[in-house]
# Entry
Amino acid sequence: MSAHSVEIAALDDAIAALQAGELVIYPTETFYGIAADPLSSTALEKLFAIKGRDPQKPVALIAADAQMAFEVASEIPPSARRLAKAFWPGPLTIVLPAREGFPLQLIGPDGGVGVRVSPHPVARALSEGIRRPITATSANRSGEDPATTVQMARDSLGDKVKVFLDGGTLRASAPSTVIACDVSGWRIIRAGAIGELAIAAALSEGTLQ
# Structure
């Protein structure tokens, strides 16, 4: 665990809360996020309500590793595998074609679901703890600045969150980059921590199979 990781007992409480359909605030490599079990309709309802988020705007996920991340998808384009190898763990959210039966609140209008593997040990530990990805939306009400401290998250979201995991002050200057990958190619949906030139360079190394 890193210097800013939380105690094991607090992690255990957070994992138990997620398994019970509650929300958890946790640190990532960018900003603080709100974790919910994506397969719990109750938890997703709480998440959208507390953020005041448009139900038509999907929420991305954080997985413990690439294998878990790819399980959300119906297919894995070669470009996605190349980007995962180059940038995971890291601040790159890849939007993939969602597998059948995935919660609609997590699927965009084009049928994609966003997922990344975070380098932050707390984020990955939560995903490992519930044995599936966790939601990765920023810990603030929609329209507010993302939280860089746990106190900012508390001030924004109040007492409707079950557990707050304090990972210190987060220093990110940008959110994760969001990129869509499918059979037709790739495109950046949201600019962020990883630039377009770095993405293009990773994809141009060798021939995609």
